[in-house]
Write a structure and sequence with these properties.
Number of helices: 14
CATH topology of the largest domain: Aspartate Aminotransferase, domain 2
Structural class: alpha/beta
Oligomer: single chain
Low-confidence stretches: none
Helix content: 40-55%
Mean pLDDT: 96
CATH class of the largest domain: Alpha Beta
Order of helices and strands: HEHEEHEHEEHEHEHHEEHHEEHEEEHHH
Distance between the termini: 40 Å
């Protein structure tokens, strides 16, 4: 049985490597790492352990990872022009947990983006935030559903007196109004947290909003979405309040993790240097591609959301497939043809529709990393039209098209 399983497991690994290299991957929360980064994650660090800060470990044998962690910490502070960075979180949600545990008290009122409005589950009752308070209220949205209504938010703040605002989304087309709400937050001593999981690479490239300069005390993020590294998380702050940062530090360790997966930290260090060098060009092309894909899909007959705002200012677009079967059926049909995306609630849909939503969320991060530009986005739109609207099989065409894009760009490889 063991030999049979070993054979099967290796076959599945090989199948995954081959299959996904032939797919058009439009999952907004995914990306691909360079060969250099991948190699680091198979190094001796994958066997090793460390707790605490560099030079203050609870284990011996950490001198190399101490230097690497120090380098990536300083690089993060440089890229995001901030005073503090903690790179020990092993995922974006793990980073959220570390911060929420120190910023949200029992029964505190907090404001977040709703699930239909794009908010991440970790901000809600069934996620990390719900471990600390049940008093979670949603930001009100403007009529289009893709922007926070600033005036109504100010009214709610005056009445509900929240202690914490959590900005950032999972479906994240446009910047959140951190700067617009800075004054009222300061007046009411509200802590502002910005979850940049999806847009961290765009922020690093200077092509999205800059939350730490706009009024957020702390910014969290995943390092494997638009920030094209290993799967980890990061916590950043520009605060002068050392007590504030020390609380976050203790939330990270020992609060939310022990050893922090040294092999992926080594990979992150290399990816961070790639972002530092190529991040601006990459972020610029990612956004251009998303806008081009939105326009091309709109022209092809799809109900692309937020058309009046140019579809997007990030790496994502949202498409309503309700008239052609909905997001679940559409996503499954696309997967049969090797086009990979995910179903997604759209604003104002009831949460109960989360397993059968109207929409799909589409991201351009990975296809940009393999060298695709605006012309390729038009071709992808044509393939999706042929599949979903015309009812044709396009798998062979997808595989032929994708075969031309195997090299990882925006890297030192």
């Amino acid at each position: 049985m063991s030999e049979k399983n070993l054979t099967k497991i290796q076959e599945l690994i090989d199948e995954q490597n081959s299959w996904r290299s032939q797919c058009i991957n439009l999952i907004a929360s995914e990306n691909v790492a360079s060969e250099r980064v991948r190699a680091a994650m198979g190094s001796d660090f994958m066997h090793r352990y460390a707790e605490g800060h560099p030079g203050q470990r609870y284990y011996q044998g950490t001198r190399c990872i101490d230097e690497i962690e120090s380098i990536v910490t300083e690089s993060m502070k440089s890229i995001f022009n901030c005073k503090h960075a903690d790179v020990r979180s092993v995922s974006g949600t793990n980073a959220n947990e570390a911060v929420f545990s120190k910023m949200i008290g029992y029964n505190d009122v907090i404001m977040v983006n709703s699930t239909p409005g794009g908010g991440h589950i970790s901000h809600h009752r069934f996620g990390a935030a719900g471990k600390y308070t049940r008093n979670i209220i949603d930001f009100p949205l403007t009529a289009d559903g893709y922007h926070i209504d600033v005036a109504k938010t100010e009214e709610i703040i005056t009445i509900a007196r929240p202690k914490v605002l959590i900005f950032g989304k999972s479906l994240f087309l446009f910047p959140d109004p951190v700067a617009d709400l800075k004054e009222i937050c300061e007046k009411n001593k509200i802590t502002v947290i910005f979850d940049a999981a999806h847009v961290l690479g765009l922020i690093a490239g200077g092509k999205f909003q800059q939350p730490l300069k706009e009024g957020a005390q702390v910014m969290l993020g995943s390092t494997h979405k638009t920030f094209f590294g290993s799967q980890r998380g990061v916590i950043l702050s520009d605060t002068d309040d050392e007590k504030f940062w020390n609380r976050i530090d203790k939330g990270a360790f020992p609060g939310s993790h022990s050893n922090h997966h040294l092999a992926t930290l080594a990979g992150l260090a290399l990816a961070t240097e790639e972002l530092d060098t190529f991040g601006a060009d990459y972020a610029d092309q990612v956004i251009k591609n998303a806008q081009a894909l939105g326009a091309a899909m709109d022209k092809a007959g799809f109900d692309v959301q937020a058309k009046e705002f140019g579809y997007t200012q990030s790496h994502q677009i949202a498409v309503n497939l309700e008239k052609i079967g909905g997001g679940k059926a559409g996503g499954e049909k696309l997967e049969e043809n090797d086009i990979i995306c995910n179903m997604n609630l759209l604003p104002f849909e009831p949460v109960r529709k989360v397993t059968k939503p109207a929409g799909v969320r589409i991201g351009t991060s990975e296809m940009t990393r393999v060298g695709m530009k605006e012309d390729e986005m038009a071709q992808i739109a044509d393939l999706m039209k042929a599949c979903l609207i015309d009812g044709k099989s396009v798998k062979a065409d997808v595989n032929t098209f994708r075969q031309k894009f195997q090299k990882i760009h925006y890297s030192f490889d």
